[in-house]
Amino acid sequence: MELQILDKTFVPFISAAEIDKEIQRIAKDLHNNFQNEVPVFLVVLNGAFMFAADLLKHYTTPAQVSFVKVASYQGTETTGKVNQLLGLDVDLTNKHVVIVEDIVDTGTTITAIQQVINTQKVKSMQVAALFFKPEAYTQTVEISHVGFRIPNKFIVGYGLDYNKQGRNLPEVYQIK
Ligand code: HPA
Ligand code: MG
Questions:
Q1: Where does the Phosphoribosyltransferase domain start and stop, copy by copy (predicted)?
Q2: Which pTM was predicted?
Q3: Pocket of ligand 1 contains residue 105 by CB under 6 Å
């Protein structure tokens, strides 16, 4: 079934069942990674809220969970866009950190987040992204856990929005 959001038409792309399957795989990989360690999951709002909820329900060993938001604003002409990390309220010293993202496309946001995290003496840092657009990616940060590698076309649903709408959908739609 086609979906209309504002001026755009979307078509079904990835079902709720397919999403759940990949999330279970990522949770299993994370369990294997951490064994007896207690990682800190840093969930990047707003987009990652649904992915994080489902991922962490499958991650059943001890963990810390916290939420951050990236504020992007125009800096000076020379600095261009500036990303600021808001709400980081955990001491990450000596912690294994997992950044939970809905989607990585150009990679500038995840790179900015990593740079902030790296100012603390973390034990390790990984990225778990439900969606990754390799054709759009311009950065070098390794995306350790990827749910789906997808073409560089706009998607909505499962946390991702188009002009603030569509985040609540349990499956993912692609622009027609
Ligand atoms: N959809 C929604 N939000 C996004 C996307 C997308 O395809 N890529 C980066 N942010
Ligand atoms: Mg995001």
A1: 18-162
A2: 0.96
A3: yes
